[in-house]
C-alpha cells in the first residue's frame, strides 16, 4: 500500500504539491488524475524517493522507498519511457537492471515475452517507436515481480491493441492483490481501467473516491425525450407539461428535449396523460470525462484562446451562410449534449426475406418505351496530315 500524509513540495516560491494525503490500496487499479501542472509527476517522484518532500511523508508498505531492501523487488515504476541508453538492446537494458537487483537472467526473457518485444529483444532501443519504448518501460517495471506498481501515462504511443493489452494487464495485476497506481489524461481509458480515483488540482486533493461515486458526485443524469418531428405542437405541449410537473427542460439542437428532475416513468406517464406520442425516451449518464471537466475546470492553468485569424480570414463564397453559434458554447460549465441515439441514417434499406440482394454496381434496367443505350461509336479517323507511327523514328519526333 502507498500512503501519503501531508505531502508538500515547493520549488522556490512555487508550491507544486500542498498538504496531499491519500492511500493507494492493494487489489484495485487506482487512477491518478489532474490537469497539466497539477503535481502528478512530482507526487510520483516523491513516492519513489527521486524528490524530497518539503513537508509530510510518503511510505510504501510502511517504509520510505529509500529504506526498502532491494526496492526493485518490491516496487516497479514507469515514469519516463525514454530513460534508456539508446545504444543498448532491449534485452541488455533489462539484463543490466536485473543484475543490479539480483534477478535471474531468465526473468528478462520472460518479461520481454509478456510485453511482446521478444522478436526485437536484440535490437538497439534507439530505433524503437514510442509505443515500443512504452512496452520496454513496462517490462522494466515488471522485472522484479513487485507488489507495488506505478505507471505514468503508460498507454502513450500505443496502438488500440496495445491499449487493450495495458488495460487487461493492469486489471490482472490488481486481481492478484497488487497495488497499481496509474496516471493518465485519457478519461475514456480510465473509465474502463480504474476502480478508484485520486484527483488533484494545483497540488491539492480534489477527490478520493470510486469511479462510480466520482461520476455521480460531479454530474447529473438526464432523460432525452423526442416527439415526432411532424408534430411541433406536441413537443411544446409536452415541454409545458413537464415543466409544470417540476422538471427542468432544455431544447437540444436536433429538436429533442433534455429533461432533468423527473424519473423516466414519470415522464412517460405525463406524455401518456397529454396524448403525446414519443419517439425516444432514454436515460443518459455523464461520462467520466464530463465529470472530471466539471470538477477541475477551476484548477486548469493552461487555457486555449480563440484563433482570431488576424488578416487571414477568407471572405465567404457567394451564397454561403456563416456558421451558426451554439447557445452557451464557450461559457463556463457548458458541455455539448450527447449525440442522439439513432440508427444509421445511411444504412441501406433491408430487402424483404427471400428477395435476392441487388447488385449496387448494376446499371438500371431500361423502362418500357425507352430506347436501349447505343453502342459506343468507333473512334474517329486521324487527320489526313497526321504523321504515321512509322514516321516517329527519332526521339525529337516522338516528342
UniProtKB/TrEMBL annotation:
UniProtKB keywords: ATP-binding, Nucleotide-binding, Transport
The keyword ATP-binding appears for this protein: yes
Q: Where is the ABC transporter domain?
A: 2-227
| Bias kind Pro residues: ranges | 315-326
GO molecular function annotations of the record: ATP binding
Q: Which InterPro entries match?
A: AAA+_ATPase, ABC_transporter-like_ATP-bd, P-loop_NTPase
Region annotation (Disordered) ranges: 300-399
The protein in question is named ABC transporter ATP-binding protein
The organism's lineage?
A: Bacteria, Bacillati, Actinomycetota, Actinomycetes, Kitasatosporales
Amino acid at each position: 500500500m502507498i500512503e501519503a500524509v501531508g505531502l508538500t513540495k515547493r520549488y522556490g516560491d512555487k508550491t507544486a504539491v500542498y498538504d496531499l494525503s491519500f492511500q493507494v490500496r492493494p487489489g484495485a487499479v487506482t487512477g491518478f488524475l489532474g490537469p497539466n501542472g497539477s503535481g502528478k509527476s512530482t507526487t510520483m517522484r516523491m513516492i519513489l524517493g527521486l524528490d524530497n518532500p518539503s513537508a509530510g511523508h510518503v511510505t510504501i508498505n510502511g517504509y520510505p522507498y529509500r529504506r526498502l531492501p532491494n526496492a526493485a523487488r518490491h516496487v516497479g515504476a514507469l515514469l519516463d519511457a525514454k530513460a534508456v541508453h539508446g545504444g543498448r538492446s532491449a534485452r541488455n537494458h533489462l539484463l543490466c537492471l536485473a543484475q543490479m537487483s539480483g534477478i535471474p537472467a531468465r526473468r528478462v526473457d520472460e518479461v520481454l515475452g509478456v510485453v511482446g518485444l521478444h522478436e526485437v529483444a536484440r535490437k538497439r532501443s534507439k530505433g524503437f517507436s514510442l509505443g515500443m519504448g512504452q512496452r520496454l518501460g513496462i517490462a522494466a517495471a515488471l522485472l522484479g515481480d513487485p507488489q507495488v506498481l506505478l505507471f505514468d501515462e503508460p498507454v502513450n504511443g500505443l496502438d488500440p491493441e496495445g491499449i487493450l493489452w495495458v488495460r487487461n494487464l493492469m486489471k490482472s495485476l490488481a486481481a492478484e492483490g497488487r497495488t497499481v497506481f496509474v496516471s493518465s489524461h485519457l478519461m475514456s481509458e480510465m473509465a474502463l481501467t480504474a476502480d478508484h480515483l485520486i484527483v488533484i488540482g494545483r497540488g491539492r486533493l480534489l477527490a478520493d473516491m470510486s469511479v462510480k461515486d466520482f461520476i455521480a458526485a460531479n454530474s447529473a443524469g438526464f432523460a432525452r425525450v423526442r416527439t415526432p418531428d411532424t408534430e411541433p405542437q406536441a413537443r411544446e405541449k409536452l415541454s409545458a407539461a413537464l415543466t409544470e410537473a417540476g422538471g427542468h427542460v432544455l431544447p437540444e439542437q436536433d429538436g429533442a428535449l433534455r429533461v432533468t428532475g423527473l424519473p423516466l416513468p414519470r415522464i412517460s406517464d405525463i406524455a401518456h396523460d397529454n396524448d403525446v406520442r414519443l419517439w425516444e425516451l432514454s436515460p443518459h449518464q455523464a461520462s467520466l470525462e464530463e465529470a472530471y471537466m466539471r470538477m477541475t475546470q477551476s484548477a486548469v492553468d493552461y487555457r486555449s484562446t480563440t484563433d482570431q485569424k488576424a488578416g487571414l480570414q477568407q471572405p465567404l463564397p457567394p451564397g454561403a451562410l456563416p456558421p451558426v453559434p451554439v447557445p452557451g458554447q464557450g461559457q463556463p460549465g457548458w458541455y455539448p449534449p450527447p449525440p442522439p441515439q439513432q440508427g444509421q441514417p445511411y444504412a441501406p434499406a433491408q430487402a424483404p426475406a427471400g428477395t435476392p440482394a441487388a447488385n449496387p454496381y448494376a446499371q438500371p434496367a431500361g423502362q418500357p418505351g425507352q430506347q436501349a443505350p447505343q453502342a459506343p461509336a468507333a473512334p474517329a479517323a486521324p487527320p489526313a496530315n497526321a504523321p504515321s507511327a512509322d514516321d516517329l523514328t527519332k526521339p525529337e519526333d516522338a516528342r
